[in-house]
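Intended use. Records like the one below are meant for learning the mapping from a protein sequence to its folded structure. Do not use them to infer anything beyond what is encoded.
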Amino acid sequence: MSLADEAAQKAGFIDARGRSEFIRFGVACLLASLLNAHVALLSIVFTQAGHTLHSAGLLLSLFAIPVIVVNLLAGPVAARIGTLATTRLSMSLMIVGFGSLALTAESFWGATASRLLHGVGFGLYLPSIMTYGQSRLNQVRFVGLVIVFSSLIPFSYALGPAMGEITLTCFGRTAFFLSATGPAALGLALTLGLRPLARPKAMGLDLSGALQRKFILPLTALFAGGVLHAYSIAFLPPDLLSRGIALALFFVPSTVATGLTRMSGNLFQRVSPRLLVASGLSLMAVGLGIIAASSALALIMSGAIAFGLGSSVIYPVVSAWLGQGIEPARRAGPQAVGAACFYFGLYGMPFPLAFLVEPAGYVTTSLLLMAFALAIALLLAFGKDRVD
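Structure written out for the chain above:
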């Protein structure tokens, strides 16, 4: 073993080349994630293209169907073509699906086809990148480095919408799509030359790694975190605006808190994953409750920071938890289960939540969601099933 490999292993990587691959792959994923961050402006693009608000909303919501379904198929796809090849396929489909909207945005059915294609790519994206990113690590700093790696996705949301707004406003729709697909294409190119993972022997829907009793509550916590995120995106904005509170007072502090916490992920390396996830979900719940109960600017920002701190922890910790004890090439199935639980909460629950918001109101709904999340957190922290 060379001195470089030995130093890299002490730093948490499989070898010296694995460290450089981890960094290179991380940059590639950041560039590809910028494309998904541009989705925040699609409602504007669709309305400018002549769609009604109802049609634009439907085009945005249809994305959930392929994302959730294909997430569960990521394991078999990775088993057949390889994890790295699955990542490249996902990036390619996202580029084509999103970029083709430059031509199809004015047609409902054409835009639907583009959105579904993008959804298929995005459904393969998160399980495959988390599986490959984890494969470059050993157990020395596994949880901390997974949290750092996963920080690239929220960081892209701090850059992508601003880039998209500038290009759409100043240069038009074509430039908007180029500003998204150009970096993603560069990210795809950066994956060339990386070492592929060995393909697992199992060729079916290998989800067994996540379908264990000890993962019931962590996966439920992922779902609950997704529900809280869904509420913050779909219903918190109109609630804040109705109270005369600028949306930036929530989204800026929460995003900054998420990014900074994940970049310091090594601090969590020695803490029990069970307690980390319970703490993260509790912070999100309490943050939402603070925002619901007060219109004071200082408290709104404090709640936003708590919400961001909590959200920074849940997904990456559960993702690392699901991957431990499983050979790298077989982690795509468990990662798909985790992603599906989160996406079901994020994309599947806004519609049911609307039936609660309408009669109960924003404040009551927020407090009910807080109680639900805190109950899951307490079960996770103090439940009898403590097999880690």
